[in-house]
Amino acid sequence: MNAMTQLKAAEARESAVEVKDLGIQYGSLDVMKSMDLAIARGEFLVLLGPSGCGKSTLLNAIAGLLDVSEGEIWISGRNVTWAEPAERGIGMVFQSYALYPRMTVAENLSFGLRMTKTPKAEIERRVAAAAKLLQLEPLLKRRPGELSGGQRQRVAIGRALVREVDVFLFDEPLSNLDAKLRAELRVEIKKLHQELGNTMIYVTHDQIEAMTLADRIAVMRGGVIQQLDAPAEVYARPRNLFVAGFIGSPA
Ligand code: ADP
Ligand code: MG
């Protein structure tokens, strides 16, 4: 193997995101202790578990939105434990879309990039690409108030996409939508992942979302991963009664 192939092989082995021995406290409450998790490049990992089990806490720690009390977070081979969110090479989508009501869809999409030194032509290229992927082209001049819930959430996803980073984090992006829209957007997110091939960490308490989207599911309870396996494996061979009950019966 020459140096270049060696480098390529090393890159391929390297995890997209690695959480090492992570501990998080809220005041005196230990929400997470000694959490270890490695997510492969291009993987769609779903964090699944009941409300309050620590899914958002873990995602926010990876995003740099809260301080960790111990351990390390690595993204694309860099230790980012103390890096600012904007420097971590991630894009994040939240449950509430938090769009700017006075800005058009196009302005909402470009806002984050306009805060950086990205050249105007490059911003336009990325906004156009995201709008195309998410079928937002006819809506670019509208304001959030003139959009449906599903369209707003598409804009929120678009805002993360324009960053063109390798890792996307989703925190229950569909839970404010009705069942029909949820099913539609689920298919779109799956397609998006297939087209972009990037790494996704997706938080949900919805078993169907987890089963249909995930390459692997991390089933969480009380700040601890109970099982980390492919959906079929989790379903067919739940590691314990909690996993069996949670996957088996809709919450
Ligand atoms: P999930 O996203 O799985 O519903 P969270 O990560 O939001 O769970 O919360 C995990 C635990 O941490 C819960 O017990 C919650 O009450 C607690 N928690 C979350 N955020 C805070 C906070 N800012 N201050 C104190 N406790 C918090
Ligand atoms: Mg949450």
UniProtKB/TrEMBL annotation:
The cellular component terms of Gene Ontology attached to this UniProt record, alphabetical and capped at eight, are: ATP-binding cassette (ABC) transporter complex, substrate-binding subunit-containing
Domain ABC transporter stretches: 17-247
Superkingdom, according to UniProt?
A: Bacteria
UniProt keywords, alphabetically: ATP-binding, Nucleotide-binding, Transport
Q: Which GO terms describe its biological process?
A: carbohydrate transport
Query: Where is the protein found, in the record's own terms?
Result: Cell inner membrane
Record's bilayer topology term: Peripheral membrane protein
Q: Which GO terms describe its molecular function?
A: ABC-type transporter activity; ATP binding; ATP hydrolysis activity
Protein family membership: Belongs to the ABC transporter superfamily.
Protein's UniProt name: Carbohydrate ABC transporter ATP-binding protein, CUT1 family
Query: What organism is the protein native to?
Result: Aureimonas jatrophae
